[in-house]
Amino acid sequence: MREFKGVKNNCLFRAKTDKHGIVHILDLSSSKPFMSVTNGVDKLAPFLLSKLEGVRVKDNVILYGTDDTVSMFHVPSKQFLLLHPHHEFIDYDYYDDMVAIKRGSGLVSGYGRVFYFNTKKYDIIDDEMGKKWRESVLRHSRLHNELSKMGDDPLPDGNLKKWLDQGFCFWVKTVNTEPYFNKGMYLVELYIRYVSKPVLVYVWCDELDGLVLKCDRYE
């Protein structure tokens, strides 16, 4: 396994090995009740160094923190070294996620926040009311039917981003941003265009936090 997402030692994170064999850790612990990876990396790093495939650098891991800083953690000495944003070993997918999650988490708070995705595109299609509109209704209805069959299962990681990239129109309304169960997730109402009934589902905090800056609008 070259990439891992989960909870370990009360830290929520993603981690992966790059082409140089360096382990990168993205801290997703900004939501309660998790501990920041910065505070738990001394125990987390040895676990990841042994679990991830392709590891060639055993003494250092690169950490992307909840405070918008990137640091290199030296495992033997347990010392941190801050890295410049243009350091050659920085993984910019993780860096961009770190920045987006930090900024987005401030918007996703409390009950009733609504975030709209890909709505502008479909306002034009709906005005035409032609073949494209009929195809769009069918496509979105199929997605809603798939979601309705999920039951109580959380939404698989990455689905919101996939739908956004595939051009689906949807909006998300927060119901509970600190649920007692399913820690590290938000409970939301997920609305699919053309369907009036929402689907109540858990989504990963970091995924929604990272996407809200890409929404058309929010309220």
Task: Give a quick set of tags describing it.
219 residues; alpha+beta; 2 domains; 6-stranded mixed β-sheet; 5-stranded antiparallel β-sheet
The global form is elongated
Instruction: Classify the secondary structure makeup into a structural class.
Output: alpha+beta
What's the pLDDT, averaged over the residues? 86
Helical stretch tally? 6
C-alpha end-to-end distance:
40 Å
The rounded Rg comes to 19 Å
Strand residues, percent: 25-35%
Helix amount: 25-40%
* β-strand number: 11
Uncertain residue segments: none
Strand order of the largest sheet: 1-2-3-4-5-6
Q: Return the string of H and E elements.
A: EEEHEEEHEHHHEEEHE
Report on the structure:
- The chain is α+β, with helices and mostly antiparallel strands and 219 residues long.
- It folds into two domains: 3-104, no CATH class; 114-218, no CATH class.
- It is 33% helix and 27% strand.
- The chain contains six helices and eleven strands.
- The chain has helices at 37-51, 92-105, 119-128, 131-148, 159-166, 205-211; strands at 3-8, 11-17, 23-27, 60-64, 70-74, 79-82, 114-117, 170-176, 185-192, 199-204, 217-218.
- The strands form two sheets. Strands 1-2-3-4-5-6 form a six-stranded mixed sheet. A five-stranded antiparallel sheet has the order 10-9-8-7-11.
- It is elongated.
Task: Give me the secondary-structure topology.
Elements: E1 3-8, E2 11-17, E3 23-27, H1 37-51, E4 60-64, E5 70-74, E6 79-82, H2 92-105, E7 114-117, H3 119-128, H4 131-148, H5 159-166, E8 170-176, E9 185-192, E10 199-204, H6 205-211, E11 217-218
Parallel strand pairs: 3-4
Antiparallel strand pairs: 1-2, 2-3, 4-5, 5-6, 7-8, 7-11, 8-9, 9-10
